[in-house]
Amino acid sequence: LDSLLQEIRIFERMGEKGEILFSDLSGDDYQKPQEIESLCQNCGKNGMTRLLLTRIPHYKEVILMSFSCDECGYQNNEIQSGGAIQEKGIKLEVHLTRERDLSRQVVKSDYASISIPDIDLEIPSLTQKGEITTVEGILSRTLAGLEHDQPVRKHMDPDGYEKIENVIGEIKGLLKLERDFKLILDDPSGNSYIENPHIPGIDPGRMEKHYARTSKQDHALGLYSEQEIQSSEPVVDSDELTAEKLQAEVLHFATNCPGCNAPAETNMKVTNIPFFKEVVIMATVCEICGEKTNEVKSGGGIEEKGKKITLAITDKSDLNRDVLKSETCHLSIPELEFEMGGAALGGRFTTLEGLLNNMLEEIENNSLWGAGDASAPDVEERMQKFKERLKLCIEGELEFTMVMDDPAGNSYLQNLYAPDPDPNMEIEEYERSYDQNEELGLNDMKVENYQQDS
Fold it and tell me: Does the predicted model carry a pTM greater than 0.85?
Protein backbone atom coordinates (compact mmCIF):
# COMPACT_ATOMS: atom_id res chain seq x y z
CA LEU A 1 0.00 0.00 0.00
CA ASP A 2 2.84 2.38 0.84
CA SER A 3 4.46 1.81 -2.55
CA LEU A 4 1.12 2.43 -4.30
CA LEU A 5 0.63 5.71 -2.41
CA GLN A 6 4.17 6.70 -3.35
CA GLU A 7 3.43 6.17 -7.06
CA ILE A 8 0.21 8.19 -6.76
CA ARG A 9 2.19 11.07 -5.24
CA ILE A 10 4.61 10.89 -8.20
CA PHE A 11 1.68 11.31 -10.63
CA GLU A 12 0.35 14.22 -8.57
CA ARG A 13 3.72 16.00 -8.62
CA MET A 14 3.94 15.48 -12.39
CA GLY A 15 0.55 17.15 -12.77
CA GLU A 16 1.56 20.07 -10.54
CA LYS A 17 4.67 20.65 -12.68
CA GLY A 18 2.60 20.67 -15.85
CA GLU A 19 4.17 17.47 -17.18
CA ILE A 20 2.15 15.26 -19.55
CA LEU A 21 0.41 12.49 -17.62
CA PHE A 22 -1.59 11.01 -20.50
CA SER A 23 0.43 10.77 -23.72
CA ASP A 24 -0.86 9.24 -26.95
CA LEU A 25 -0.56 5.47 -27.11
CA SER A 26 2.32 4.66 -29.49
CA GLY A 27 5.25 2.32 -30.01
CA ASP A 28 7.84 4.84 -28.78
CA ASP A 29 10.14 3.63 -26.01
CA TYR A 30 9.75 6.73 -23.86
CA GLN A 31 6.29 5.68 -22.72
CA LYS A 32 7.06 3.18 -19.97
CA PRO A 33 4.69 1.89 -17.27
CA GLN A 34 5.14 2.47 -13.55
CA GLU A 35 5.95 -0.77 -11.71
CA ILE A 36 4.62 -1.37 -8.20
CA GLU A 37 5.23 -4.40 -6.00
CA SER A 38 1.86 -5.54 -4.65
CA LEU A 39 0.15 -8.47 -2.97
CA CYS A 40 -1.06 -11.41 -5.07
CA GLN A 41 -4.67 -12.24 -4.19
CA ASN A 42 -4.19 -15.81 -5.42
CA CYS A 43 -1.19 -17.04 -3.39
CA GLY A 44 -0.65 -14.27 -0.83
CA LYS A 45 2.90 -13.49 -1.99
CA ASN A 46 4.20 -10.38 -3.73
CA GLY A 47 3.70 -9.83 -7.44
CA MET A 48 4.19 -6.89 -9.81
CA THR A 49 1.55 -4.33 -10.86
CA ARG A 50 2.21 -2.12 -13.90
CA LEU A 51 0.34 1.14 -14.47
CA LEU A 52 0.32 3.02 -17.78
CA LEU A 53 -1.40 6.38 -18.17
CA THR A 54 -2.14 6.88 -21.86
CA ARG A 55 -4.57 8.28 -24.41
CA ILE A 56 -6.25 5.67 -26.60
CA PRO A 57 -6.92 6.61 -30.27
CA HIS A 58 -10.64 7.10 -31.00
CA TYR A 59 -11.28 7.53 -27.24
CA LYS A 60 -9.79 9.45 -24.33
CA GLU A 61 -7.42 9.19 -21.33
CA VAL A 62 -7.30 5.79 -19.64
CA ILE A 63 -5.28 3.93 -17.00
CA LEU A 64 -4.05 0.50 -18.09
CA MET A 65 -3.29 -1.91 -15.24
CA SER A 66 -1.59 -5.28 -15.44
CA PHE A 67 -0.67 -7.67 -12.60
CA SER A 68 1.53 -10.77 -12.76
CA CYS A 69 2.84 -13.07 -10.03
CA ASP A 70 6.05 -15.03 -10.69
CA GLU A 71 5.34 -17.29 -7.71
CA CYS A 72 2.03 -18.81 -8.84
CA GLY A 73 1.74 -17.54 -12.42
CA TYR A 74 -1.49 -15.62 -11.76
CA GLN A 75 -2.13 -12.75 -14.20
CA ASN A 76 -4.80 -10.07 -14.44
CA ASN A 77 -5.33 -6.87 -16.44
CA GLU A 78 -8.00 -4.18 -16.61
CA ILE A 79 -8.68 -0.65 -17.81
CA GLN A 80 -10.10 2.33 -15.96
CA SER A 81 -11.10 5.75 -17.22
CA GLY A 82 -8.50 8.40 -16.51
CA GLY A 83 -11.10 11.18 -16.57
CA ALA A 84 -14.05 12.06 -14.42
CA ILE A 85 -17.52 10.54 -14.67
CA GLN A 86 -19.33 12.37 -17.49
CA GLU A 87 -22.30 14.66 -16.88
CA LYS A 88 -24.59 12.29 -18.78
CA GLY A 89 -24.75 8.60 -19.52
CA ILE A 90 -24.28 7.30 -23.05
CA LYS A 91 -26.14 4.69 -25.08
CA LEU A 92 -24.58 3.40 -28.30
CA GLU A 93 -26.36 1.25 -30.87
CA VAL A 94 -24.44 -0.32 -33.75
CA HIS A 95 -25.90 -2.27 -36.68
CA LEU A 96 -23.37 -4.86 -37.87
CA THR A 97 -23.76 -5.92 -41.48
CA ARG A 98 -20.23 -6.66 -42.80
CA GLU A 99 -16.95 -8.19 -41.69
CA ARG A 100 -15.33 -4.79 -41.05
CA ASP A 101 -17.98 -4.09 -38.40
CA LEU A 102 -16.73 -6.99 -36.28
CA SER A 103 -13.34 -5.24 -35.94
CA ARG A 104 -14.81 -1.98 -34.61
CA GLN A 105 -12.85 -0.91 -31.54
CA VAL A 106 -14.87 -0.94 -28.31
CA VAL A 107 -13.86 0.72 -25.05
CA LYS A 108 -16.05 -0.62 -22.25
CA SER A 109 -16.01 0.69 -18.68
CA ASP A 110 -16.90 -1.34 -15.58
CA TYR A 111 -20.36 0.24 -15.50
CA ALA A 112 -21.29 -0.53 -19.12
CA SER A 113 -23.84 -3.19 -20.01
CA ILE A 114 -23.95 -4.84 -23.43
CA SER A 115 -26.95 -6.47 -25.07
CA ILE A 116 -27.69 -8.15 -28.40
CA PRO A 117 -31.50 -8.18 -28.76
CA ASP A 118 -31.42 -10.51 -31.79
CA ILE A 119 -30.35 -13.45 -29.60
CA ASP A 120 -31.64 -12.15 -26.22
CA LEU A 121 -28.09 -11.86 -24.89
CA GLU A 122 -27.19 -9.37 -22.16
CA ILE A 123 -23.95 -8.75 -20.25
CA PRO A 124 -24.90 -6.74 -17.11
CA SER A 125 -22.76 -3.93 -15.76
CA LEU A 126 -20.12 -4.63 -13.08
CA THR A 127 -19.92 -8.31 -14.14
CA GLN A 128 -16.75 -7.74 -16.18
CA LYS A 129 -13.79 -5.41 -15.79
CA GLY A 130 -13.34 -2.50 -18.16
CA GLU A 131 -11.47 -3.41 -21.32
CA ILE A 132 -10.37 -2.30 -24.78
CA THR A 133 -11.51 -4.84 -27.33
CA THR A 134 -13.52 -5.22 -30.54
CA VAL A 135 -17.05 -6.40 -31.29
CA GLU A 136 -15.55 -9.74 -32.29
CA GLY A 137 -13.61 -9.84 -29.02
CA ILE A 138 -16.79 -9.31 -26.99
CA LEU A 139 -18.55 -12.16 -28.79
CA SER A 140 -15.52 -14.47 -28.53
CA ARG A 141 -15.09 -13.80 -24.82
CA THR A 142 -18.79 -14.44 -24.20
CA LEU A 143 -18.58 -17.63 -26.24
CA ALA A 144 -15.58 -18.87 -24.24
CA GLY A 145 -17.37 -18.14 -20.96
CA LEU A 146 -20.48 -20.06 -21.98
CA GLU A 147 -18.50 -23.06 -23.27
CA HIS A 148 -16.31 -23.30 -20.16
CA ASP A 149 -18.64 -25.39 -17.95
CA GLN A 150 -20.67 -27.08 -20.68
CA PRO A 151 -19.13 -30.58 -20.18
CA VAL A 152 -20.11 -30.57 -16.49
CA ARG A 153 -23.47 -28.92 -17.15
CA LYS A 154 -24.33 -31.62 -19.70
CA HIS A 155 -24.51 -34.21 -16.90
CA MET A 156 -25.66 -32.01 -14.00
CA ASP A 157 -28.25 -29.86 -15.80
CA PRO A 158 -29.21 -31.25 -19.23
CA ASP A 159 -31.97 -28.68 -19.80
CA GLY A 160 -29.63 -25.79 -19.05
CA TYR A 161 -27.01 -27.39 -21.26
CA GLU A 162 -29.39 -27.46 -24.25
CA LYS A 163 -30.46 -23.83 -23.77
CA ILE A 164 -26.88 -22.58 -23.51
CA GLU A 165 -25.85 -24.75 -26.46
CA ASN A 166 -28.48 -22.95 -28.55
CA VAL A 167 -27.07 -19.58 -27.50
CA ILE A 168 -23.54 -20.76 -28.33
CA GLY A 169 -24.70 -21.75 -31.81
CA GLU A 170 -26.29 -18.34 -32.34
CA ILE A 171 -23.13 -16.51 -31.23
CA LYS A 172 -21.03 -18.60 -33.61
CA GLY A 173 -23.46 -17.64 -36.37
CA LEU A 174 -23.01 -13.95 -35.53
CA LEU A 175 -19.22 -14.33 -35.63
CA LYS A 176 -19.61 -15.69 -39.17
CA LEU A 177 -22.08 -12.86 -39.97
CA GLU A 178 -24.71 -15.33 -41.10
CA ARG A 179 -27.19 -12.51 -40.44
CA ASP A 180 -27.16 -8.83 -39.55
CA PHE A 181 -27.53 -7.96 -35.88
CA LYS A 182 -27.56 -5.01 -33.49
CA LEU A 183 -25.29 -4.45 -30.47
CA ILE A 184 -26.30 -2.00 -27.73
CA LEU A 185 -23.84 -0.57 -25.19
CA ASP A 186 -25.33 1.39 -22.26
CA ASP A 187 -22.93 3.15 -19.88
CA PRO A 188 -24.32 5.47 -17.15
CA SER A 189 -20.80 6.82 -16.50
CA GLY A 190 -20.48 8.01 -20.13
CA ASN A 191 -16.96 6.56 -20.41
CA SER A 192 -17.49 3.94 -23.12
CA TYR A 193 -17.07 4.18 -26.87
CA ILE A 194 -17.60 2.26 -30.12
CA GLU A 195 -15.45 3.17 -33.13
CA ASN A 196 -16.79 5.05 -36.14
CA PRO A 197 -14.87 3.55 -39.12
CA HIS A 198 -16.18 6.28 -41.45
CA ILE A 199 -14.61 9.14 -39.49
CA PRO A 200 -14.75 12.12 -40.14
CA GLY A 201 -17.96 11.28 -41.98
CA ILE A 202 -21.26 10.15 -40.49
CA ASP A 203 -21.60 6.49 -39.51
CA PRO A 204 -24.96 5.29 -40.89
CA GLY A 205 -24.87 2.15 -38.74
CA ARG A 206 -24.10 3.83 -35.41
CA MET A 207 -26.44 5.80 -33.16
CA GLU A 208 -25.25 7.70 -30.10
CA LYS A 209 -27.54 9.08 -27.41
CA HIS A 210 -26.70 10.97 -24.21
CA TYR A 211 -29.18 10.80 -21.34
CA ALA A 212 -29.66 12.11 -17.82
CA ARG A 213 -28.97 9.48 -15.16
CA THR A 214 -31.58 8.36 -12.64
CA SER A 215 -30.93 8.63 -8.90
CA LYS A 216 -30.35 4.89 -8.77
CA GLN A 217 -27.67 5.12 -11.48
CA ASP A 218 -26.02 8.05 -9.69
CA HIS A 219 -25.86 6.00 -6.48
CA ALA A 220 -24.34 3.04 -8.34
CA LEU A 221 -21.58 5.39 -9.53
CA GLY A 222 -21.06 6.72 -5.99
CA LEU A 223 -22.69 10.08 -6.74
CA TYR A 224 -24.97 11.63 -4.10
CA SER A 225 -26.60 15.01 -3.77
CA GLU A 226 -25.81 17.34 -0.90
CA GLN A 227 -29.20 16.58 0.65
CA GLU A 228 -28.43 12.87 0.63
CA ILE A 229 -24.95 13.31 2.08
CA GLN A 230 -25.91 15.65 4.90
CA SER A 231 -28.12 14.43 7.70
CA SER A 232 -29.65 17.86 8.32
CA GLU A 233 -31.18 20.39 5.94
CA PRO A 234 -28.58 22.52 4.16
CA VAL A 235 -28.25 26.12 5.28
CA VAL A 236 -29.98 28.54 2.91
CA ASP A 237 -28.26 31.87 2.35
CA SER A 238 -30.73 34.63 3.26
CA ASP A 239 -28.91 37.09 1.02
CA GLU A 240 -30.68 36.04 -2.16
CA LEU A 241 -29.09 36.83 -5.48
CA THR A 242 -31.46 39.03 -7.46
CA ALA A 243 -31.51 39.39 -11.25
CA GLU A 244 -30.05 42.88 -10.94
CA LYS A 245 -27.13 41.66 -8.83
CA LEU A 246 -26.52 38.81 -11.22
CA GLN A 247 -26.29 41.18 -14.19
CA ALA A 248 -23.86 43.49 -12.41
CA GLU A 249 -21.21 41.16 -11.04
CA VAL A 250 -18.92 38.27 -11.96
CA LEU A 251 -19.52 35.23 -9.80
CA HIS A 252 -16.73 32.92 -8.66
CA PHE A 253 -17.00 29.33 -7.50
CA ALA A 254 -14.54 26.53 -6.78
CA THR A 255 -14.13 23.64 -9.21
CA ASN A 256 -11.51 21.17 -10.45
CA CYS A 257 -9.34 21.64 -13.53
CA PRO A 258 -10.54 19.40 -16.40
CA GLY A 259 -6.90 18.89 -17.41
CA CYS A 260 -5.05 17.96 -14.20
CA ASN A 261 -7.95 17.83 -11.69
CA ALA A 262 -6.23 20.38 -9.45
CA PRO A 263 -8.40 22.90 -7.52
CA ALA A 264 -9.31 25.86 -9.74
CA GLU A 265 -11.76 28.76 -9.88
CA THR A 266 -14.50 29.32 -12.45
CA ASN A 267 -15.78 32.81 -13.30
CA MET A 268 -19.40 33.20 -14.39
CA LYS A 269 -21.15 36.22 -15.90
CA VAL A 270 -24.67 36.80 -17.21
CA THR A 271 -24.91 39.03 -20.28
CA ASN A 272 -27.30 39.96 -23.09
CA ILE A 273 -26.55 39.45 -26.79
CA PRO A 274 -28.22 42.07 -29.07
CA PHE A 275 -31.05 40.67 -31.23
CA PHE A 276 -30.85 37.39 -29.34
CA LYS A 277 -31.26 36.62 -25.65
CA GLU A 278 -29.61 36.38 -22.23
CA VAL A 279 -26.69 33.96 -21.91
CA VAL A 280 -24.36 32.72 -19.15
CA ILE A 281 -20.61 32.76 -19.88
CA MET A 282 -18.26 30.62 -17.76
CA ALA A 283 -14.46 30.56 -17.92
CA THR A 284 -11.87 28.53 -15.99
CA VAL A 285 -8.10 29.05 -15.82
CA CYS A 286 -5.89 26.56 -13.98
CA GLU A 287 -2.82 28.05 -12.29
CA ILE A 288 -1.17 24.62 -12.05
CA CYS A 289 -1.16 23.36 -15.65
CA GLY A 290 -2.36 26.49 -17.50
CA GLU A 291 -5.50 24.79 -18.89
CA LYS A 292 -8.09 27.32 -20.14
CA THR A 293 -11.72 26.50 -20.85
CA ASN A 294 -14.81 28.54 -21.57
CA GLU A 295 -18.44 27.57 -21.95
CA VAL A 296 -21.68 29.36 -22.80
CA LYS A 297 -25.17 28.33 -21.71
CA SER A 298 -28.51 29.86 -22.52
CA GLY A 299 -29.95 32.00 -19.74
CA GLY A 300 -33.49 31.10 -20.77
CA GLY A 301 -35.34 27.88 -21.38
CA ILE A 302 -35.69 25.70 -24.42
CA GLU A 303 -37.43 27.43 -27.31
CA GLU A 304 -40.76 26.19 -28.68
CA LYS A 305 -39.12 25.22 -31.96
CA GLY A 306 -35.69 24.08 -33.07
CA LYS A 307 -33.53 26.42 -35.15
CA LYS A 308 -31.35 25.71 -38.18
CA ILE A 309 -28.99 28.48 -39.34
CA THR A 310 -27.32 28.18 -42.74
CA LEU A 311 -24.67 30.73 -43.74
CA ALA A 312 -22.83 30.86 -47.07
CA ILE A 313 -19.27 32.11 -46.42
CA THR A 314 -18.24 33.94 -49.57
CA ASP A 315 -15.77 36.47 -48.15
CA LYS A 316 -13.04 36.37 -45.50
CA SER A 317 -14.85 39.09 -43.52
CA ASP A 318 -17.65 36.59 -42.83
CA LEU A 319 -15.26 34.78 -40.51
CA ASN A 320 -15.43 37.74 -38.09
CA ARG A 321 -19.13 37.20 -37.34
CA ASP A 322 -19.99 36.51 -33.69
CA VAL A 323 -21.22 32.98 -32.96
CA LEU A 324 -23.02 31.58 -29.95
CA LYS A 325 -23.05 27.79 -30.10
CA SER A 326 -25.05 26.00 -27.41
CA GLU A 327 -24.11 22.53 -26.17
CA THR A 328 -27.08 21.07 -28.08
CA CYS A 329 -26.09 22.61 -31.43
CA HIS A 330 -24.80 20.31 -34.19
CA LEU A 331 -22.32 21.75 -36.71
CA SER A 332 -21.85 20.64 -40.31
CA ILE A 333 -19.96 21.77 -43.41
CA PRO A 334 -21.55 20.02 -46.43
CA GLU A 335 -18.64 20.82 -48.78
CA LEU A 336 -16.27 18.89 -46.48
CA GLU A 337 -18.81 16.14 -45.69
CA PHE A 338 -18.19 16.98 -42.04
CA GLU A 339 -20.50 16.90 -39.04
CA MET A 340 -19.76 17.47 -35.35
CA GLY A 341 -22.21 16.83 -32.51
CA GLY A 342 -23.07 19.44 -29.92
CA ALA A 343 -21.28 17.71 -27.04
CA ALA A 344 -17.91 17.72 -28.85
CA LEU A 345 -17.18 21.42 -28.26
CA GLY A 346 -19.81 22.27 -25.65
CA GLY A 347 -21.15 25.82 -25.48
CA ARG A 348 -19.01 28.52 -27.13
CA PHE A 349 -19.24 32.29 -27.61
CA THR A 350 -16.65 33.29 -30.20
CA THR A 351 -16.28 34.31 -33.85
CA LEU A 352 -16.85 32.04 -36.82
CA GLU A 353 -13.08 31.90 -37.34
CA GLY A 354 -12.60 31.06 -33.67
CA LEU A 355 -15.21 28.30 -33.90
CA LEU A 356 -13.44 26.75 -36.91
CA ASN A 357 -10.12 26.91 -35.02
CA ASN A 358 -11.80 25.20 -32.05
CA MET A 359 -13.03 22.47 -34.37
CA LEU A 360 -9.55 21.99 -35.88
CA GLU A 361 -7.94 21.95 -32.42
CA GLU A 362 -10.45 19.35 -31.21
CA ILE A 363 -9.73 17.17 -34.26
CA GLU A 364 -5.94 17.43 -33.90
CA ASN A 365 -5.76 16.96 -30.11
CA ASN A 366 -8.62 14.55 -29.42
CA SER A 367 -7.79 10.93 -30.21
CA LEU A 368 -11.50 10.37 -30.88
CA TRP A 369 -10.84 11.82 -34.38
CA GLY A 370 -8.19 9.28 -35.29
CA ALA A 371 -5.00 10.73 -33.78
CA GLY A 372 -2.15 8.36 -32.86
CA ASP A 373 -0.18 5.53 -34.41
CA ALA A 374 -3.07 3.07 -34.10
CA SER A 375 -5.12 4.81 -36.78
CA ALA A 376 -5.84 2.85 -39.94
CA PRO A 377 -3.87 4.13 -42.99
CA ASP A 378 -7.03 4.96 -44.95
CA VAL A 379 -8.50 6.88 -42.01
CA GLU A 380 -5.25 8.80 -41.47
CA GLU A 381 -5.09 9.74 -45.18
CA ARG A 382 -8.71 10.96 -45.20
CA MET A 383 -8.17 12.96 -42.02
CA GLN A 384 -5.05 14.63 -43.44
CA LYS A 385 -6.88 15.74 -46.59
CA PHE A 386 -9.82 16.91 -44.52
CA LYS A 387 -7.64 19.02 -42.19
CA GLU A 388 -5.92 20.66 -45.17
CA ARG A 389 -9.28 21.72 -46.62
CA LEU A 390 -10.51 22.92 -43.22
CA LYS A 391 -7.40 25.12 -42.88
CA LEU A 392 -8.21 26.66 -46.28
CA CYS A 393 -11.68 27.50 -44.94
CA ILE A 394 -10.15 29.15 -41.84
CA GLU A 395 -7.80 31.22 -44.02
CA GLY A 396 -10.75 32.37 -46.17
CA GLU A 397 -9.37 30.78 -49.34
CA LEU A 398 -12.26 28.36 -49.80
CA GLU A 399 -15.96 29.21 -49.98
CA PHE A 400 -18.11 26.94 -47.86
CA THR A 401 -21.42 26.67 -46.01
CA MET A 402 -21.75 26.54 -42.22
CA VAL A 403 -24.88 24.83 -40.90
CA MET A 404 -25.82 25.18 -37.22
CA ASP A 405 -28.72 22.92 -36.23
CA ASP A 406 -29.89 23.41 -32.64
CA PRO A 407 -33.00 21.48 -31.53
CA ALA A 408 -33.18 23.67 -28.40
CA GLY A 409 -33.14 26.88 -30.49
CA ASN A 410 -30.46 28.47 -28.28
CA SER A 411 -27.74 29.18 -30.84
CA TYR A 412 -26.97 32.43 -32.65
CA LEU A 413 -24.98 33.64 -35.67
CA GLN A 414 -24.46 37.37 -36.12
CA ASN A 415 -26.49 39.10 -38.82
CA LEU A 416 -24.33 41.89 -40.25
CA TYR A 417 -27.43 43.54 -41.77
CA ALA A 418 -29.56 43.47 -38.58
CA PRO A 419 -32.37 44.28 -38.14
CA ASP A 420 -32.76 43.65 -41.92
CA PRO A 421 -32.45 40.09 -43.32
CA ASP A 422 -29.00 38.80 -44.26
CA PRO A 423 -28.93 37.73 -47.96
CA ASN A 424 -26.33 35.01 -47.22
CA MET A 425 -28.05 33.63 -44.15
CA GLU A 426 -31.09 31.40 -43.92
CA ILE A 427 -32.79 30.81 -40.55
CA GLU A 428 -35.30 27.99 -40.37
CA GLU A 429 -37.46 27.17 -37.37
CA TYR A 430 -38.84 23.65 -37.27
CA GLU A 431 -40.91 21.33 -35.12
CA ARG A 432 -38.71 18.95 -33.17
CA SER A 433 -39.04 15.22 -33.68
CA TYR A 434 -40.00 12.86 -30.87
CA ASP A 435 -36.38 11.69 -30.52
CA GLN A 436 -35.11 15.27 -30.25
CA ASN A 437 -37.67 16.05 -27.55
CA GLU A 438 -36.68 12.85 -25.78
CA GLU A 439 -33.00 13.86 -25.79
CA LEU A 440 -33.94 17.27 -24.37
CA GLY A 441 -36.10 15.62 -21.69
CA LEU A 442 -39.32 17.24 -22.89
CA ASN A 443 -41.52 14.20 -23.55
CA ASP A 444 -41.96 13.36 -19.87
CA MET A 445 -42.05 16.96 -18.66
CA LYS A 446 -45.31 18.04 -17.01
CA VAL A 447 -45.79 21.82 -16.81
CA GLU A 448 -49.49 21.97 -15.89
CA ASN A 449 -51.10 20.48 -12.78
CA TYR A 450 -47.71 19.01 -11.94
CA GLN A 451 -48.66 18.64 -8.28
CA GLN A 452 -51.17 16.00 -9.26
CA ASP A 453 -50.28 12.42 -10.10
CA SER A 454 -49.50 11.78 -13.77
Answer: no
